[in-house]
C-alpha cells in the first residue's frame, strides 16, 4: 500500500522534532499504522533552517503545500491564529486531513474549524495542542467515554510551574524566578502568554469542550496569571499545608460550567501539588472511574512530537473509514453539543486564601470574622504573624492569613470590600482560590 504523504508547515522546535521522530521510528510506526507515513514537503519561511529535512522538498510557499494534490495530511506547526487559520481552513477545503499542535488556534477558532472538517469529511487531530506528550485528549475523547466527566484540573504550562517551584524551593520573588527560567530556556523573551495564564487557558478550554460536550468558548474563560503572586503567599500557603500552582480548571456544577485559570492553593498531600519543575499533570474526575491522573512532559521537541506522530498514525488508520463513524472531534456528535452556560467568575464556588495586614489592636480579628459570618463565610484555618516576621512590616502591624470554607465568589468579594474599609486594615486583601480535588 502506498504511504500516506504529509506536508509539514513549519520546521521549528515541534516541526523538526516531528520529522526526527517520524524518520527515526519509521519502521515501528509503519507496523502500527498499517502503511508508511512520509513527510514529502516542508514549508518554512527560511528554507535554510530546514536543511535537516534531507530528501524532502522544501519551500517558503505554504500555500503550495496546502494545495498540493499529492498531500494527504497537512501538519500545521507554525502557531498563531491568523495565517495558521487560513492555511488550516484551506487544507480542509482541499479535502486534506489536518494535524496541529496549535492550542491558540483551536481555543479561538475551533468551532469553525471542526465544523468545516465535518462538512468536508476530514479529520482534525490535535493531541499535541494540550499537555505536550501526555495523551490527555485521547483519554478524554475515547478512554473515558463511558464516564460523565465532573471536573478537570491541570498543571498545563511548564513555564509557570517551573517558576512557582523555584519561588517555593529557593524563597525568591517572581521576577528573579522568571529571569532564571528565561536563562534556562524555559520561558520566552516575551513570556506574557505563559505567565499571564493565556496558554493554560487555551488548553483547558479545549479540554472542557471535550469533557462536557460544549462548543469551544475561550472568550468566556476566566484568565489570571502568576505575575502578581508574592513570595510571602507561597511561604504562608506552605505553613498552612498547601502549595500554589497555576491550574486550568473546568468543573461541572448545577448552575453551569466553571472554566477558569488562576493561581490555586492545592493541599500538599495531593499528587497534583507535588508536580514540580516544567512537568505537566492533569487530574480528571469521572463518575464511573473516579479520579485519574495523567503526568509527563508538557513541552519540548520530542515529547510534543510523540503526540503529533500519534495523531498522524490515527489519521492514517482511519483515512479510508466512513466519516460518520469516526470519533467526533469533541467526543460528542456535533448535533449533540450542549448549550450549558459558562459561569462568570463571580458565580463560581471555591474556598479562599485571604491575606491582609492589620493594626495590632484589640478587636480587629473579631470585626473581620463578623464580616465573614454576615456573608455566610466560615473560617477553616487561621494564621497570624507578628510584625517582626512580616516582610517589610512595621511594628504594631500584623499579617492575618485566613483559609475559608467554600462560598460563592461574589460573597467573598463583598466581604473583602467591607474588610478593606475597616480603619484597622492597612493593606488590600490578597485573595487566592483553593482547589476542589477529590
Automatic annotation (TrEMBL):
It is an enzyme of class 1 (oxidoreductase). NADPH binds at residue 103. One of its GO terms (biological process) is threonine biosynthetic process. L-homoserine binds at residue 188. NADP(+) binds at residues 9-16. GO terms for molecular function: homoserine dehydrogenase activity; NADP binding. This is Homoserine dehydrogenase. Its EC number is 1.1.1.3. InterPro entries: ACT-like_dom_sf, ACT_dom, Asp/hSer_DH_NAD-bd, HDH, HDH_cat, HDH_CS, NAD(P)-bd_dom_sf. PANTHER family: HOMOSERINE DEHYDROGENASE. Pathway: Amino-acid biosynthesis; L-methionine biosynthesis via de novo pathway; L-homoserine from L-aspartate: step 3/3; Amino-acid biosynthesis; L-threonine biosynthesis; L-threonine from L-aspartate: step 3/5. Residues 353-434 form the ACT domain. Keywords: Amino-acid biosynthesis, Methionine biosynthesis, NADP, Oxidoreductase, Threonine biosynthesis. It comes from the Bacteria. Gene3D superfamilies: 3.30.70.260, Dihydrodipicolinate Reductase, domain 2 (3.30.360.10), NAD(P)-binding Rossmann-like Domain (3.40.50.720). The lineage of its organism: Bacteria, Pseudomonadati, Pseudomonadota, Betaproteobacteria, Burkholderiales. Pfam families: ACT, Homoserine_dh, NAD_binding_3. The active site is at 203 (proton donor). Belongs to the homoserine dehydrogenase family.
Amino acid at each position: 500500500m502506498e504511504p500516506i504523504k504529509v506536508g509539514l508547515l513549519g520546521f521549528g522546535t515541534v516541526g523538526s522534532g516531528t520529522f526526527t521522530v517520524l524518520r527515526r521510528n519509521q519502521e515501528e510506526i509503519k507496523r502500527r499504522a498499517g502503511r508508511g507515513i512520509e513527510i514529502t514537503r516542508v514549508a518554512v519561511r527560511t528554507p535554510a533552517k530546514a536543511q535537516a529535512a534531507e530528501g524532502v522538498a522544501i519551500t517558503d510557499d505554504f500555500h503550495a503545500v496546502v494545495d498540493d494534490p499529492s498531500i494527504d495530511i497537512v501538519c500545521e506547526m507554525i502557531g498563531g491564529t491568523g495565517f495558521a487559520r487560513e492555511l488550516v481552513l484551506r487544507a480542509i477545503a482541499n479535502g486534506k486531513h489536518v494535524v496541529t499542535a496549535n492550542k491558540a488556534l483551536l481555543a479561538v477558532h475551533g468551532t469553525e474549524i471542526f465544523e468545516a472538517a465535518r462538512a468536508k469529511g476530514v479529520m482534525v487531530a490535535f493531541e499535541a495542542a494540550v499537555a505536550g506528550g501526555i495523551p490527555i485528549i485521547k483519554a478524554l475523547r475515547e478512554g473515558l467515554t463511558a464516564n460523565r466527566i465532573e471536573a478537570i484540573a491541570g498543571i498545563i504550562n511548564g513555564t509557570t510551574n517551573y517558576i512557582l517551584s523555584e519561588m517555593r524551593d529557593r524563597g525568591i520573588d517572581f521576577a528573579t524566578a522568571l529571569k532564571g527560567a528565561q536563562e534556562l530556556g524555559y520561558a520566552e523573551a516575551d513570556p506574557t502568554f505563559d505567565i499571564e495564564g493565556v496558554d493554560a487557558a487555551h488548553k483547558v478550554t479545549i479540554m472542557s469542550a471535550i469533557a462536557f460536550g460544549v462548543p469551544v468558548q475561550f472568550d468566556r474563560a476566566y484568565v489570571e496569571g502568576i505575575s502578581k503572586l508574592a513570595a510571602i503567599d507561597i511561604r504562608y500557603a506552605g505553613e498552612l499545608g498547601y502549595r500554589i500552582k497555576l491550574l486550568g480548571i473546568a468543573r461541572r456544577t448545577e448552575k453551569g460550567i466553571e472554566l477558569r485559570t488562576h493561581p490555586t492553593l492545592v493541599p500538599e498531600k495531593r499528587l497534583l501539588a507535588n508536580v514540580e519543575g516544567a512537568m505537566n499533570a492533569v487530574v480528571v474526575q469521572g463518575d464511573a472511574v473516579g479520579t485519574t491522573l495523567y503526568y509527563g512532559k508538557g513541552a519540548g521537541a520530542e515529547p510534543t512530537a510523540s503526540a503529533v506522530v500519534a495523531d498522524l498514525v490515527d489519521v492514517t488508520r482511519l483515512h479510508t473509514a466512513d466519516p460518520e463513524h469516526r470519533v467526533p472531534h469533541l467526543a460528542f456528535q456535533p448535533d449533540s453539543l450542549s448549550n450549558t452556560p459558562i459561569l462568570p467568575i463571580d458565580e463560581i464556588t471555591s474556598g479562599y486564601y485571604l491575606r491582609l495586614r492589620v493594626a495590632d489592636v484589640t478587636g480587629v480579628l473579631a470585626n473581620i470574622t463578623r464580616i465573614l459570618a454576615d456573608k455566610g463565610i466560615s473560617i477553616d484555618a487561621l494564621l497570624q504573624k507578628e510584625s517582626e516576621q512580616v516582610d517589610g512590616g512595621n511594628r504594631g502591624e500584623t499579617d492575618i492569613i485566613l483559609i475559608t470554607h467554600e462560598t460563592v465568589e461574589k460573597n467573598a468579594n463583598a466581604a473583602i470590600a467591607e474588610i478593606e474599609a475597616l480603619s484597622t486594615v492597612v493593606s488590600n486583601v490578597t485573595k487566592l482560590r483553593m482547589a476542589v480535588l477529590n
